[in-house]
Amino acid sequence: MLPVAAALAVGALVGVITGLTGVGGGVLMVPFLYVLYGGLHVPASDATALAHATSLAVIVPTAIRGLVGYRGKNVVNLRAALPIAAVAAASAAITAPLAARLPAQALRIGFGIFLLTVSADLLLRTTARADQPPQGPMHLIGAALLGMPVGALSAALGVGGGIPATMGMYYLLKLPFRILAPTSLLVIAVTAAAGTVSYLFTPTGALGFGWVAGHVDFGHALPLAVGASLTAPLGVKLNLGSSVFTLRRIFGGLLVVIGADLIIENLIR
């Protein structure tokens, strides 16, 4: 019962963060699952991919639940989300089978440094930015190209791709900060689904618990998904009730925590 209660609690926090910021919450779920699998004596060769795949599976219903909360608000930019999601889905599906052979530790440290750099800009910026997103063919091409790293990072790090998608849409596509979270939710729903499906067909070794398909641990994903789906509407409500200045500070603070955690955790391993 204790692992189930812990998973529900972690999922509840993931739901709030997902609805509020458009980040899938993999940065919380993956470390939790590492600890969980360590206690269950899962071989290290399987634990990483198992945690990443299970995290992606949870992100799908959580992101969809968040999108439902934003319906009717006209805050999802389909012109950006669809090409990013389409290319990211293919990129995630290609990367997932290779994830076990990638230098995950170095990737996480590098990604952590990137997040700290971005957070400094978000937290220290005092003036509003003029958002004038291009609407021509170059906009679509830029969105499609952005999908490649979004999908690859999603599968390699076990996250939904919300952080690179959000940052790419803000800095490269120049989208207004107000619409980043809901637009990101559409991207990560598609990307996480593609990564999950790919992980379903990558076999794992013998485990001491059941309800696992490929590397997706549905038994532990269920309480995480239940907790996240219940609280995602709260995150949406907080987003809609906050100013752009506040959202930027919240997102910047979140990136500081995530970036520092990625660097410290992987340096001491």
Topology overview:
Blueprint: H1 2-21, H2 26-39, H3 44-69, H4 78-95, H5 104-124, H6 137-157, H7 162-171, H8 180-200, E1 212-213, E2 216-217, H9 218-240, H10 244-267
Helix pairs in contact: 1-2, 1-3, 1-8, 1-9, 2-3, 3-8, 3-9, 4-6, 4-8, 5-10, 6-7, 6-8, 7-8
Q: What does this 3D model show about the protein?
A:
This protein has one domain (2-267). The protein is 74% helix and 1% strand. The chain is built from 10 helices and 2 strands. It has helices at 2-21, 26-39, 44-69, 78-95, 104-124, 137-157, 162-171, 180-200, 218-240, 244-267, and strands at 212-213, 216-217. Strands 1-2 form a two-stranded antiparallel sheet. Helix 1 (2-21) packs across helix 3 and helix 1 runs parallel beside helix 9. The chain is globular. The mean pLDDT is 86.
Distinctive features:
269 residues, mainly alpha, two-stranded antiparallel sheet, 10 helices, 2 strands, 74% helix, globular
Briefly say what this structure is.
By secondary structure, the protein is mainly alpha-helical. The protein is 74% helix and 1% strand. It has one domain.
Radius of gyration over alpha carbons? Answer: 17 Å
Give the ordered list of helices and strands: HHHHHHHHEEHH
3D shape: globular
Poorly predicted residue ranges: none
The domain count comes to 1
Q: Strand pairing plus helix content: what structural class?
A: mainly alpha
Proportion in β-strands? under 5%
- Strand order within the widest beta sheet: 1-2
Largest sheet: 2 strands, antiparallel
Average pLDDT confidence is 86
Record field, number of beta strands: 2
Count of separate DSSP helical elements = 10
Distance between the termini: 29 Å
The amount of helix comes to: over 70%
